[in-house]
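tool=predict chain=A
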Amino acid sequence: MPRSVNSVAAKARRKKVLKQAKGYFGRRKNVHTVAKNAIEKGMQYAYQGRKQKKRNFRALWIQRINAATREHGMSYSTFMGKIAKNNIELNRKVLADLAMNDAAAFKAIVDSLK
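tool=predict ok
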């Protein structure tokens, strides 16, 4: 009995890998084993990057809030402490947006805390 090999599925798998490696440089784009390794590593970086994006944005919001509060004579830590104490439920994303795009509203918040 002849050996049964599902070459259709194998070719489809390889084709899928090479399609994902489109745009890579050198053998990474056209040699299956090299492309497979490159894609696996790329997927790891993508997974890590989705976590790092959240960290980076939070750090950016904190820097923006800190810069805006210092213009009004207050530090970031005292500002956030007073925000929590006065039960103002605005998160850092919204506060940073106000600091950047609506300086008058942010000043009103700072003045209400002083």
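The chain has five helices and no strands. The helical segments are 7-20, 32-71, 76-85, 92-101, 103-113.
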